[in-house]
Every structure is written in structure tokens, then in C-alpha cells.
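User: quick one, sequence for these C-alpha cells?
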């Protein structure tokens, strides 16, 4: 990246102003004053200082993945491929998934290197609706709608926050939850003597899984898009 671009990005002034600062010798790269505004820096490796203060350029990336089954939501696994392995076109060492989907769950998963965003979306009191499409075995009884809205009691004694369930077919539905406990949907269904057969996340807050995005494919979103979606 050009040095003037990096400084302007970091808010040190307009492109014209930062060029002036560079020409005046305010900027050092790896300990040497650089007066050339189109000097190229590796923003991830080079040490850049402005009047002695070290600058940190963070380039956040946001990927919306349609997770296929068989991949684990982790950055590293000694047995299974991870969701990060699917993000191929990028130097992906800092990326991580925002939350987890089980290995056999498919659908929308946000992958980023923006720890602050991930934290803000995952804190328990942040009520982000997650919608899952599911197929299941067992009988869905009329009374269950209310059980979901009241909060399902799991086998370990935990009472889930209110959720909503929409039955589409006899053994197919849409469930909306705001939490992300371990195997949550599967355990909620088990608590009512039903068993999940397939589970696919189709939305996360205002972020929707695009209909034409095939499993294993992803799209990149800009920081501006992400800010708009999660504002
Ligand atoms: N609930 C589950 O049981 N599994 C998931 O992957 C997500 C929600």
C-alpha cells in the first residue's frame, strides 16, 4: 500500500495533507525517514511511525460463507477441514468464524478478522435473531408453539430464552433463536421428543444467506456494508 494512502486511511489528514507531512519528514518506515509519498509499505509487516508514534493499520475483512456439512467452525482442527480452509483467495491466518455452527449444520456463517465486531455480536445481552431452517423426526404438537415462546427447558436444567417456531410442513420448520448455546436447536427439539435431521442457518440479524450462494461459496462484504447491517 502507498504510504500516503495508509496515513490518510488512518485519519492523519486528506491525501494532500499527508503528502505534505511525508515530504516534511514526519514519517519513518522501519527506522528511516521516508519523504517519498508513493513509497510502498507492507502495512502488516513494516513499522511505520508518525512523529515517533507507531501506527497500526488493520485491514478488516468480512466474508459471508454458506457453510457446507463436514467442516468445523474453528481456525484449526487436526482431523476435519475447517471453515477457514474454504476462504481461499485471502491471506487467511487471522480469520475466525463469528460463533459456531455444528459440523453437520449448513448455512450462513460470518468469517472475519475483526475481533471487536465478533465480540459485539456474540455478547449474551446482544439480541441478534438467528433463523434456522430444519427438518426433523417426531411429532410437532400444537402446544409446542407456546412452549417455544415460553422458553424450552433443556435436559441440563437450563431454560432457553423465548424462541419462535414456524411449521412449514409436517416435519419441516423455521426456528428463530437469539442465543447460541452448544447444540441449542438440536437440544430444544430433543426436549420435546423430536430429533433434528438437517439444520441450515438462513439469517443472522439483518444478514441473510443469499439464495444463489451455493454451499462452500462465500461473498466478501465491505466494512461499510457490515456497519450498515449491524448498526
Ligand atoms: N443449534 C444447533 O443445534 N446446532 C447448530 O449448529 C446451531 C444451532
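Assistant:
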Amino acid at each position: 500500500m502507498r504510504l500516503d494512502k495508509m496515513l490518510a486511511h488512518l485519519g492523519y489528514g486528506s491525501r494532500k495533507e499527508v503528502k505534505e507531512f511525508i515530504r516534511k519528514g514526519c514519517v519513518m518506515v522501519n527506522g528511516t525517514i521516508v519523504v517519498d509519498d508513493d513509497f510502498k509499505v507492507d502495512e502488516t509487516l513494516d513499522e511505520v511511525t508518525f512523529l515517533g508514534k507507531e501506527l497500526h493499520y488493520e485491514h478488516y475483512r468480512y466474508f459471508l460463507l454458506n457453510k457446507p456439512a463436514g467442516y468445523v467452525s474453528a481456525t484449526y482442527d487436526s482431523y476435519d477441514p475447517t471453515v477457514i480452509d474454504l476462504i481461499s483467495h485471502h491471506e487467511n491466518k487471522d480469520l475466525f468464524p463469528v460463533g459456531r455452527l455444528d459440523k453437520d449444520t449448513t448455512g450462513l456463517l460470518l468469517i472475519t478478522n475483526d475481533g471487536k465486531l465478533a465480540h459485539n455480536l456474540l455478547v449474551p445481552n446482544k439480541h441478534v435473531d438467528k433463523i434456522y431452517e430444519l427438518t426433523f423426526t417426531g411429532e410437532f404438537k400444537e402446544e409446542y408453539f407456546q412452549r417455544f415462546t415460553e422458553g424450552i427447558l433443556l435436559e441440563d436444567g437450563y431454560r432457553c430464552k423465548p424462541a419462535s417456531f414456524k411449521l412449514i410442513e409436517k416435519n419441516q420448520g423455521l426456528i428463530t433463536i437469539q442465543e447460541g448455546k452448544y447444540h441449542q436447536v438440536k437440544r430444544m427439539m430433543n426436549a420435546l421428543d423430536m430429533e433434528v435431521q438437517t439444520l441450515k442457518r438462513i439469517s443472522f440479524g439483518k444478514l441473510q444467506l443469499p439464495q444463489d450462494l451455493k454451499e462452500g461459496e462465500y461473498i466478501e462484504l465491505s466494512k461499510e456494508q457490515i456497519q450498515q447491517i449491524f448498526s
